[in-house]
Design a protein that fits this description.
This protein has 14 helices and twelve strands. It has 339 residues and is an alpha+beta fold. It is globular and about 70 Å long.
Length: 339
């Protein structure tokens, strides 16, 4: 087994994906670094329990088969089995946080939630390390057992550990690990930026995918896009400079619910923007209806626009809408297809 790739993947999978569905509140944002400015959460448990997944069991079984095949080919499946972990049965949610003001390689933070068996995890991890020729060391950080993973080939050392039986984290530094433990046990307070706290009020654990980011972080991400952000329109970059923050989420259930949240200066400003937004949406609905009368291919767009509404939620303007799978099917049929 090539250490730099396969061992790293095995260690992270064995230590980082061993999460079981938990009845506790998901997304324990308080453990995230205080300087966090972007948060992406994938709620796998919610997706697998959705009406869509339940009504498409054949497709789900194919997905399971492909995933298990990939894990087997990567040499990871046996370690997951030793840890008594099943990806589709046990994984609940994964959250990736990106603190601002630090290089990505020094700041990335991963949070997984569920029920953990530390002994089985340690046994599987040690065996994986031994087979790969080393690279994993059990240490103590802030009184908590952690795994120091140092892949060969120059990859950066990371720290992974179960900080309680429902929470597993992966950090790029011992300091971030120690601080997360302290925030979880209450000996240190979570002091995220007000913009981030406000944006987090627009997302919840019932959503399938959610993303929040401050305006400066969005701008930084755009500027560091391929070709130095050359592919991002100047108008879009100017718009990002005006944003305090943005949130986005998708919820897959019987239909697909989507929402976008924009962080403003205060509640009054949010209410004003929501009112203006609904006025623009009214005009949009009229125009979409007119286009649908002229061309039936616009009917799915009109159906979607009719569901969209804006509202004020604290300092945030939240725009919500819904797409039925029937409407989505019509929309996809109308898209131009290449031969």
């Amino acid at each position: 087994m090539q250490f730099a790739r396969r061992y790293w993947f095995a260690a992270v999978a064995a230590l980082g994906m061993l999460a079981a569905t938990s009845t506790a509140q998901a997304q324990q944002y308080k453990v995230l670094p205080n300087d966090t400015e972007a948060i992406l959460t994938l709620n796998i448990g919610q997706i697998l329990k959705s009406e869509v997944a339940k009504s498409n069991k054949a497709i789900l079984e194919i997905a399971k088969s492909k995933a298990n095949e990939g894990l087997e080919n990567a040499g990871v499946a046996k370690w997951l089995k030793k840890a008594d972990f099943d990806l589709f049965r046990d994984l609940h949610s994964m959250t990736v946080a990106m603190p601002g003001g630090r290089p990505p390689e020094d700041a990335a933070f991963i949070l997984l939630e569920g029920n953990f068996d530390p002994d089985k995890i340690e046994s599987a991890a040690n065996e994986a390390s031994s087979e790969a020729g080393g690279g994993l060391k059990v240490i103590k950080i802030a009184g908590t057992k952690a795994f120091e993973v140092t892949p060969k080939g120059g990859e950066k050392t990371v720290y992974i550990g179960v900080i309680n039986r429902k929470t597993l984290i992966g950090t790029a530094s011992k300091t971030d690990f120690a601080d997360a433990v302290a925030r979880l046990n209450g000996s240190k307070q979570s002091t995220m930026k007000d913009e981030v706290k406000s944006l987090l009020e627009t997302v919840n654990s019932k959503q399938s995918v959610s993303f929040v980011a401050t305006g400066p972080m969005l701008l930084k991400m755009a500027e560091k896009a391929p070709q130095g952000g050359a592919g991002v329109p100047p108008a879009a970059l100017d718009g990002l400079k005006q944003l305090d923050g943005l949130s986005f989420s998708i919820t897959v259930q019987k239909n697909i619910d989507f929402q976008v949240g924009l962080n403003t200066q205060d509640n009054k400003t949010a209410a004003k923007y929501a009112e203006v937004g609904n006025g623009l949406l009214t005009l949009g609905r009229l125009q979409a209806a007119q286009q649908a009368q002229k061309n039936e291919k616009f009917a799915p767009i009109a159906e979607i626009v009719n569901t969209v509404k804006a509202s004020a939620q604290g300092r945030n303007v939240v725009v919500r809408g819904q797409v039925s799978f029937e409407t989505l099917g019509k929309l996809l049929q109308n898209l131009p297809m290449q031969n």
